[in-house]
Design a protein that fits this description.
The protein has a single domain, classed as Zona pellucida, ZP-C domain (Immunoglobulin-like, Sandwich). The relative contact order is 0.30. It is mainly β. Strands 4-3-2-7 form a 4-stranded antiparallel beta sheet, with no helix packed on it. A 3-stranded antiparallel beta sheet has the order 1-6-5, with no helix packed on it. This is DMBT1 protein. Its main location: secreted. Keywords: Disulfide bond, Glycoprotein, Secreted, Signal. Pfam families: Zona_pellucida (PF00100).
Length: 116
């Protein structure tokens, strides 16, 4: 476990370990929950569809395309629950494959009106 106080910055790094240098790593989704087996009922979305959902989220430069770095500030879950768990979904793509999910970046999905 990593112990933090409310509003303390947390820095995360995800690394892809591969002998192929032509791969890119992209953080698509990152959700926090006090329950390690349920990331839907009581969850806090940090990143969704590649879009930052938390106002304290910041991405950081990495000299390697196989490394993704970001940070956010500890939120109110920290004071209400003894532990908070993160679940992140990452995508691996070919370098310079502009049709891949990695190069699409943030995707805002709008819901349609069910009216006539």
């Amino acid at each position: 476990p990593y112990y933090v106080d409310l509003n303390q910055n947390l820095f995360l790094q995800a690394s892809l370990h591969s002998s192929d240098p032509n791969l890119v790593l992209f953080v698509d989704t990152c959700v926090a929950s006090p329950d390690p087996s349920d990331f839907r009922t009581l969850a806090y979305e940090l990143i969704g569809s590649g879009c930052p959902k938390d106002p304290t989220y910041s991405s950081y430069y990495s000299p390697y395309s196989s490394v993704s770095r970001f940070a956010f500030s500890a939120f109110s879950f920290v004071n209400r629950y003894p532990s908070v768990y993160l679940q992140c979904e990452l995508v691996v793509c070919r370098y310079l494959d502009y049709s891949s999910r990695c190069y699409q970046g943030c995707i805002n999905r709008f819901k349609r009106n069910a009216g006539s």
